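re: that chain from earlier
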Amino acid sequence: MNSTLSSEDLDNDIRIQQVQQTAPDAVQFYIREDLFNNDPYDIIQQKVATFQPILSKDDTRCDQASKDGGKKFEDKKQIKCMRSVGTYVIQQIGRKILSGDMNLTKISFPIKAMIAKSALEKNLQSTIFFPLYINRAVQTVDFMEQLKLVITATIATFHINLSFHKPLNPILGETVEGFLSDGTKLFAEQISHHPPISQFYGIGRDNSYKYFGNYWYEASAGLNSITLKNKGKRTIVFNGGQRIDYNFAYELYSGTIMGSMKVETLGVSTYQTNKGLTATLKFGKVKRKPTDYFEGTINMGQQELCKIFGTYMGYIEFDGVRYWDHRHMQPYQVTIKPPFLPSDAQLRGDYTNLASLDIDKAQIEKENLENLQRHDAKLRTKFKEFRRKKEEKKKQHDHD
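^ sequence. v structure.
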């Protein structure tokens, strides 16, 4: 299970860089494919079959871990770019607060502070450790072991996926399709405009498991921070019969205007199974530890069966047995398929122009899409009102 992937490299899996010549005020998104594990299916199966807990016992955190907790963000050029739109965004936040609207997911960000990826694509990144851990879970009949592996596959992604990089907000009806090198098929679709809800669905090779749920974000702003709450749910169902439902903790982005930038996962995440097992993880409350540390338990009713401890910036252990260590486990890349449906995110005008660094045209395309969404929303509201009046009229006619 060892790899030469360094903890510093891990932060570059979703890296953006300042483009000094063509678009000096924008950021560019790219993925270094060499940082991901693209083993073919037969090699993956060998690793799954021979998986063993890690012998390391040291208290390790990757280089991107902030001293006080969370993942730090230090690239000065990228920070300058993202803060260059700060005044504009603050003005919008102020208007919303004065109007009594605290839902910041409706704020429109200038496209120069965004990356050429849809949020639907980022949502699928939650599966980057599935080829190892979920395939291992498929092969065991031990329900508690399955739960441990699902928790591990989830927590191991945090130090990679936590990011200040802002993807494009999906348009209602937008779709994305992808896959993992083990044969897992992945799909995502934006099913609601406001609130913004993204649905996802994954199918393991040979239908060995199903993974589905939704992302539903709410954002609120502090003086120098943004809190992002995901009200969505995730579910994984194994062919053996166990179903695991779990939710999201929340994310705190601090240093948005000044000072050090970092992002933390905080709060509580719970896992419920149809076999009576439950797990609760509490983030940021471990005494004398940075806020990326967590602790929890697996229970059967009121009986505690297992203790959980670790840091999403380094490792996770169950009763002292280490299942994931950032120095030894390499993520698997989610490959996004070329556009097949007209609704594919990669066909959006703002997406394609941002990818080619035509920032001015990308901004125009983004505004056109937002205006079209608002227009469509008004039509839907108008139709609902028309239908309501029609039904009331019919009820009155039937009554008479």
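The first helix runs from residue 7 to 10.
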